[in-house]
Design brief:
Layout (H helix, E strand, L loop, with lengths): L14 H8 L4 H19 L7 H18 L8 H30 L6 H16 L18 E3 L7 E3 L1 H13 L5 H22 L5
Antiparallel strand pairs: 1-2
InterPro entries: Peptidase_M28B, TFR-like_dimer_dom, TFR-like_dimer_dom_sf
Keywords: Carboxypeptidase, Hydrolase, Protease
Protein name: Glutamate carboxypeptidase 2
Length: 207
Amino acid sequence: MQQDYPVYHSMYDDFVWMQKFGDPLFHRHVAGASILGLVALKLADEEFLPFDYKSYADELQQLTEVLKSKMRGKPVNFAPLLKSIKKFSKAASKVDSQRKELEGKSFLSKWKKNPIEVRELNDRLMMTERAFIDREGLSERPWFKHLIYGPSKHNAYMSGAFPSIDDAIQRVTISNASEAWGLVQHEIWRVARVITQASQVLGGRLT
């Protein structure tokens, strides 16, 4: 980043430098705004929301395996988290099949497509992401509600996966108290709960 943008986070990183040297005609800014505008139009105009929860489930699985390998030998059990991800993956596959079926009806004839079914599917796709939010939020940072992705408490510049679990692990590391691993297990259960909740929303069993 510093090589491409040498004034990054310096006293010269301001509008004047950008106007004179960085992007005098603001072409890059226009390009960035155009991309975001196209994304917004796609989200607004697509008949089905372009959310791929199968990839989401795969990512959750990979993130859990990485975390599990780091915690090998520690007194924590990742089975609840893995079980919830498996349920979420099944729900994602099912909703993907339902979307393909509805898209097939749309292709054959617009009269065979039920707009209420399309709306119901889109509602599930939209509400699923919200299901990852926990009302209590992160410990000591309750204004952050998403339990899958969030900013790191120990590195203000970065965000990461499973922030509540990461916070608990950091607390154990700092305190060096073996009984504190119960806090980590508690956060694993909390994350597993919201993932299970998301799978229920995606499957239409929870609204």
